[in-house]
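hi got a favour to ask and not much time before my train. below you get a single protein, a line of residues and a line of whole numbers that encode the local backbone shape. could you go over both lines and see whether the tokens make sense for that sequence. a few lines back from you is plenty, here it is:
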Amino acid sequence: MSAPNQPNATSLPFLLMGIPGLEDAHTWISIPFCFMYIMALLGNSTVLLAVRLDKALHEPMYYFISMLAAIDLIFTTAVVPKMLSVFWLGSREIAFPACFTQMFFIHTFTAVESGVLLAMSFDRYVAICNPLRYSTILTNARTTQIGLLSLARGAAVMTPLMYLLTSLPYCRDRVIPHSYCEHMAVVELACADPSVSDLYSVIVATLLVGTDSVFITFSYGMILRSVLRLPSRGARLKSLSTCGSHLSVILLFYTGGLLSMYLQMFSLGLAPHTRVLVADSYLTVPPMLNPLIYGMKVKQIRDGIFRLLEQLPGLRFSDAH
């Protein structure tokens, strides 16, 4: 362990390696990530515009979908542009404040997305199990409050973690074996004991993911019980189809997130570049797929996007849908 020249000196930058062991292939690896980023930008921006401009979509469920789209835009934009600059330009340097700002956005909006997915499961629970009270329980104002509460919760639990991490002295060569400021990769560069921040991050992640996933499971358990009691097969299929897109996004988010987190914590004998590619994919693949899932599964979103596109000169989709 090298001695610190300037303990906790925030003037010294970090250096991102990109994908360790695959530096010669950075240009080729950047192509799918650039494609996914462009698709995420286009898809999520289109969903946001459709919900914003189409009054038929001014309902709680679509507001939650637009929140998810906004989160995905923030996710990808916090990571991919810098990642591509490392791949294309060799711009490996990232300032100390910028590194932890990037980390803060990633962690905070992971927590926010978990909260929004929980709210979406509650929305489907009320819509299917208590439809007569749906409009009184989930008003537009209350939907906005839920979104702001999810944001406040994410920021509140991640701010102490950022304080703990920025208080550590980083006295090694500050080379991060990653393509962005991934939490565990950065902490390994500290020359002081990071056990407090490690413990805090594990507790927060366990409580947030554990609590949200338990309530989401409970909500869909109640939905399934209610749906199975419906008299006709057609009614059951119609009710279940409205939840299919939500379940797809939930599984994509939690499965990908847990896989990425555990691979960073426990190498399991995998090569470093494999773990980095999994982490990079988690921040780019779901934001690209989510608008496609909602565009295909939710007819109202699909129709809203078609109506938005029909306003462009020369485009007509009325026959297609």
About this structure: Strands lie at 14-16, 93-94, 175-176. The first strand starts at residue 14 and ends at 16. Confidence is low (pLDDT under 50) at residues 1-8, 317-321. The CA atoms of residues 121 and 247 lie 9 Å apart.
